[in-house]
Write a structure and sequence with these properties.
mainly alpha; Histone Acetyltransferase, Chain A; rod-shaped
Length: 293
C-alpha cells in the first residue's frame, strides 16, 4: 500500500512540476503584457493632458479674438452710421446748392473763384512784372471779384460741402481699415475654433484608446492574479506531497530497523540456546552474540 501511495505521489509531483513550469512562463508573459498596457495607458493620459492644455490655450485665444471682432464690428457700425449721417448732410447741402444755383443762375464754384483771386494777388506781390501786365491781372481780379460776389451766397454751402466730403473720405478710409482688421481677426478666430473642434475629436479618440488600454490592463492583471493564485496552490500541494513522502520514507526506515532488531533478537536467543546446550557456535553466531552485547 505504501509503495503504491509513493508511486501515486511521485506521479502527481511530476505533473505538478510540469504545470508549475507552464504557469511560471504564463505568469511572466502576463506580467509583460500587463506592464505594456499600463505604460500605454500612461502615455495616452499624458497626450490627453497635453491636448487639454493646448485646447485651453486655443479656447482663450479664440474667445479673446471673438471679443475683439465683436468690438470691432460695433466700432465699424458706428463709423458707418457716422458716414451715413454726413452723407445725408451732404445730400441736403447739394439740394440747397442746386436750388440757389437755379434761382440765381450761378454755374461757378465760389470757392474756386476765391482761390483763383488769392493766387493772382499773391503773384502780383511776389513776381516782378511790368505795369501793363499788373494792370491786366488787376482787371482779371476785378472781374473775378464780381463773379465771386454774385456767387457768394453759395460760398458757405460749398465750403461745408467740401469739408464734409473730406470727412467722408476719412471715415471711409477708417471704416475700410476697421473692416479689414475685423475680417483678419474673424478669420483667425475661425481657425482657432476649427482647431478646437479638431483637438476635441482627437481627445475623444485618445480617451477611447486610454479606456481600452486600461481595460486590457485590468483584465490582464486579473488573469495574472488568477494564474499566480493557481501557482501558489500547486506549490502548496507540492509542499504537502514532499512532506508526505518524507513521512513515508521515515516510516520505512523505522520498519526496517524494527525488522532487523527482531531478527537479531531471534538469532541472539538461538545462540544463547546453543550455549546452554553446549553446541558448537559458528562465526555468524559469534558476530550475533557480539552485536547483542
Amino acid at each position: 500500500m505504501t509503495t503504491e501511495r509513493k508511486k501515486e505521489l511521485f506521479r502527481r509531483l511530476t505533473e505538478l512540476e510540469k504545470d508549475i513550469g507552464g504557469l511560471r512562463n504564463e505568469l511572466n508573459q502576463l506580467d509583460s503584457k500587463k506592464e505594456a498596457f499600463f505604460t500605454q495607458k500612461e502615455e495616452l493620459s499624458r497626450q490627453i493632458h497635453a491636448s487639454i492644455k493646448d485646447i485651453k490655450q486655443v479656447r482663450s485665444e479664440r474667445d479673446s479674438l471673438t471679443q475683439e471682432v465683436k468690438k470691432g464690428k460695433e466700432e465699424r457700425q458706428k463709423l458707418n452710421q457716422g458716414l451715413k449721417d454726413i452723407i445725408d448732410k451732404v445730400k441736403a447741402l447739394n439740394k440747397e446748392k442746386k436750388e440757389i444755383t437755379k434761382k440765381h443762375k450761378i454755374s461757378e464754384d465760389p470757392v474756386k473763384i476765391k482761390k483763383e483771386i488769392e493766387q493772382l494777388e499773391s503773384r502780383i506781390e511776389t513776381v516782378p512784372m511790368s505795369f501793363e501786365k499788373e494792370k491786366e491781372i488787376m482787371k482779371v481780379i476785378h472781374d473775378l471779384r464780381k463773379r465771386y460776389d454774385k456767387s457768394k451766397e453759395l460760398s458757405s454751402i460749398w465750403e461745408q460741402s467740401y469739408a464734409l466730403s473730406r470727412q467722408i473720405d476719412a471715415l471711409k478710409k477708417e471704416a475700410e481699415e476697421k473692416h479689414k482688421k475685423v475680417q483678419t481677426k474673424a478669420k483667425t478666430s475661425q481657425e482657432r475654433h476649427e482647431h478646437l473642434i479638431s483637438d476635441s475629436k482627437e481627445i475623444d479618440e485618445l480617451k477611447k484608446k486610454e479606456e481600452e488600454a486600461f481595460k486590457n490592463f485590468i483584465e490582464t492583471k486579473k488573469r495574472f492574479i488568477g494564474v499566480n493564485d493557481e501557482l501558489k496552490k500547486k506549490l502548496m500541494e507540492i509542499k504537502k506531497i514532499k512532506s508526505e513522502l518524507d513521512s513515508l520514507a521515515l516510516g520505512d526506515k523505522e520498519k526496517k530497523e524494527v525488522s532487523i532488531n527482531q531478527q537479531l533478537k531471534m538469532k541472539k536467543e538461538s545462540v544463547e540456546e546453543k550455549i546452554k546446550k553446549r553446541q558448537k557456535l559458528t562465526t555468524e553466531d559469534f558476530l550475533v552474540f557480539q552485536n547483542s552485547k
